[in-house]
């Protein structure tokens, strides 16, 4: 037992990672065996592809920048214009497809900023405790005390309407959710014996945060970010609809419906297709997030 | 129990104070000149100057804050630029419509969400579960404004069953104001026809508002039911021979109601916020529509007033949820 | 007379992601009226699965693959909810392991018992009794299980009761329907040793008074011997041996039963090492105290405790739950800050150290936790877990780290390829070995062991205890061994402290404390431990 040990032959990749491979197979199995998760995954993939290549594949790219064709105003859906045309004669299909990119940006910026602010604050509040926690959580509670859309409306009203201010306002409204989530998770993980065990071998706080706390908080954060991508897109579209977000002729789905409202009910396609795009995108991210939760959260699994 | 309520009330006042600070900060983050902002885009430089002195905007920030807070304490929320009436008066005029709408939506949410959640938990992975899962996910994902427009198109325009928008027909006289909620007032004054009319007007907006609420109550209730049904005391209750119906409907449901209640409180606040969209779609003359029209005409005081007021309503709701929690869970009563 | 409950050649499978696993294999048991049957087995033996299946509350994904279960001529395997209502609680009822989680926290004790009473009346088709009658019956039931003030307990919620009281409440609920058969699933495991003896006595009393047929499941042979006249031994889903308890305890036939019995420590077993000459104190604890504030009250978890630990000795700290022993363990290593007093390692005060100095000092003092399942981070593999102290304290990495990890795996007698496994793939005993490897990686002087074996099966416990003894000799370690189990302490400690309510009530050499306890509390503790010990079990079995 005390004789010097010669390192044994390094095992193959398969041997070293047998556990992870099984875990991934289990994940894939849970993921694929659920119809709704696969539906969500498909919707999100379509959305991402459209956001990536949209401007190059649409039939009337100039219509997305505010081109006017007075001759073809408010045409119903046809072989030429799949989703019909709007009051400027622009092809609604082209505008909806290009709108995916706007929405992707909106979702990424809002959830990204919110997580960037919320996650560190949540970890500090949960791990440090004491006055740091008291201050962070009180401020968080304040933001949560005003319903999100009402608060966002107030901030946009103060900053002035526009897509950029709208994203900023929603990010400001969104971060407290991450603080709450991460704080609760950190508090739970902090109580685990392995954290105490790491302290008992002399680990520093940054080490514990990086090796023990953060990895164990990651799955709920990923799930929440996936869900929030959808909810942020929805909220931004709502502000666009009210008239405080993106302004026409920018191809933003909420703003399109806002304009289309005055052309109801006779020109129904004008508001139908952008709305359906919002619905399917948000649905996709929600189903994906829900599936990810089933996959990553062992509590909701039965094996 | 009494000290529990007292502590919650103190926390309520503290949070309310915090929200007031928050609205003050938002007022002051506005780029450029707050006097300009309050005066609106069409004001002359003279008017801006008048407003500056009138509102004390030439004073230091701290002094402004003190004035703001003492005004608030006296119930003075400032005046609307558009109507020149005190904001508080207008808030009180619009609030009942919003509260009525949210309450009806909440009732729909609970009546649909809780039973569906229980059913899909009991028949987990069965057909009911799959249908409710798609339904609930769609409910959260449906944009309220789009769903509203589609339902107007279908039920009001095509089928003609329900009115398109508003609270009552233009020709109808509202019931005598007691609570300001038409459903309640018409019942109190015994005008059942009017009640029926008001119900027809509220059903579409309330349904649209309640969709995400139904969905999330359903999801939480289902998840909690599944977890509770696997817990030891439920196994024990079954082993003691208590019938399956009673185990699910009484023993498990009461435990699952705790997190569901938290979600109900959360969704109540969320709906208060979402009224800005739904009221816009249905021309529902409540706080949300008031806030949106004020924001669009850069009338700043009413927007802040609505924010503060909705915050107040939400905080009170949270207090009620906390009390309900303690009522259900004996372990909280002592603490 | 035909058997009351007959399990014949019963097999059960469970479907998992990794395929179908057998839970029970060809289990046959017959229980006649008036029998007291004990089922002994360690975790994973399938004993709980067996009785839950009998009650129709087994896991959802399980599947019967053969055999049958009949009760009084009724086939239990194909019963529907309606049929079960006439069985559960009325003919067969059950009591459970952890009385806290098995009572619904949101209903009063009275409401829960009354519901059970009503359910039984409904099941047998009798008229429902009124409120007052129900309450009277519930209070009578509570009185029957030795609760002195049934009226008060009736109105209380579970969280207001102690563990022993909750178990009594559960037993009264199980008896509410006047069942023929009572199944007791580890009824004493979650309880303190003094309460254990009381609950076992209560069960015996009820068997005699109510003419019950009892099936009791336990990993604890002492508890089984105290109640059961017949006994079955389960191992990996099979019954390897059954017969009269006396025969099985005195003359086990099957290899596994022999091993199991051998690994149960005997109460009278003395520490192998005789008391050593006192060397210089390695660790000195001076007037240490810890006060927690909770709900406006001060709770003195540890109250002005002083003692010292000599180099090379094994000091046992014994106490029941709530005695403050775990808090004391954490104070020794300054994992929590004391409210008063100090700890000195070789004369140097830990309280005086700066955070950096404290971290460096930690290599000399290590901790082994009670629950190895949560002491390892599920996201790190075993190599990460064992390597962590080396990376932190010695800055090792790459090849050197790997060599050291493999050396440590050798030390704790685990295969080297375990380095790439994850904690959830290991058994409890293997995890505890990994925890010990982590603790000794830095070659510490002193090891604080907080109930290192209480979460483990008895056969694993024996292995770990033996391994700890070897390790101590080899690495010249000093142990502070915290435990609620007097038998284990007696087995390995040189000196003992007895704690109660945060104070040391008695201390001395193991010999003195066990043979001449001075304090009444120590005497009571020893008496209870003796009552559930292996010797007592054998004596009980030998009696006619």
UniProtKB/TrEMBL annotation, chain A:
Keywords: Cell membrane, Membrane, Peptide transport, Protein transport, Transmembrane, Transmembrane helix, Transport. Signal peptide: none annotated. Residues 100-289 form the ABC transmembrane type-1 domain. This is Peptide/nickel transport system permease protein. Belongs to the binding-protein-dependent transport system permease family. It is a multi-pass membrane protein. The chain crosses the membrane at residues 35-58, 104-127, 162-181, 229-247, 267-289. The lineage of its organism: Bacteria, Pseudomonadati, Pseudomonadota, Alphaproteobacteria, Hyphomicrobiales. It is found in: Cell membrane. It comes from Aquamicrobium terrae. InterPro entries: BP-dependent_transpt_permease, MetI-like, MetI-like_sf, OppC_N. Pfam families: BPD_transp_1, OppC_N. PROSITE patterns: ABC_TM1. Its main location: membrane. PANTHER family: D,D-DIPEPTIDE TRANSPORT SYSTEM PERMEASE PROTEIN DDPC-RELATED, OLIGOPEPTIDE TRANSPORT SYSTEM PERMEASE PROTEIN APPC.
Automatic annotation (TrEMBL), chain B:
Keywords: Cell membrane, Membrane, Transmembrane, Transmembrane helix, Transport. It is a multi-pass membrane protein. Pfam families: BPD_transp_1, BPD_transp_1_N. Gene3D superfamilies: MetI-like. The chain crosses the membrane at residues 9-30, 101-122, 134-157, 194-218, 261-282, 302-328. Residues 95-325 form the ABC transmembrane type-1 domain. It is found in: Cell membrane. Belongs to the binding-protein-dependent transport system permease family. PANTHER family: DIPEPTIDE TRANSPORT SYSTEM PERMEASE PROTEIN DPPB-RELATED. This is Peptide/nickel transport system permease protein. The lineage of its organism: Bacteria, Pseudomonadati, Pseudomonadota, Alphaproteobacteria, Hyphomicrobiales.
UniProtKB/TrEMBL annotation, chain C:
InterPro entries: AAA+_ATPase, ABC_transp_ATP-bind, ABC_transporter-like_ATP-bd, ABC_transporter-like_CS, Oligopep_ABC_C, P-loop_NTPase. It is a peripheral membrane protein. Keywords: ATP-binding, Nucleotide-binding, Transport. Residues 5-261, 283-526 form the ABC transporter domain. It comes from the Bacteria. It is found in: Cell inner membrane. Coiled coil: none annotated. Transmembrane segments: none annotated. The keyword Cell wall biogenesis/degradation does not apply. Pfam families: ABC_tran, oligo_HPY. Belongs to the ABC transporter superfamily. NCBIfam families: PRK10419.1, PRK11308.1. This is ABC-type glutathione transport system ATPase component. It comes from Aquamicrobium terrae. The lineage of its organism: Bacteria, Pseudomonadati, Pseudomonadota, Alphaproteobacteria, Hyphomicrobiales.
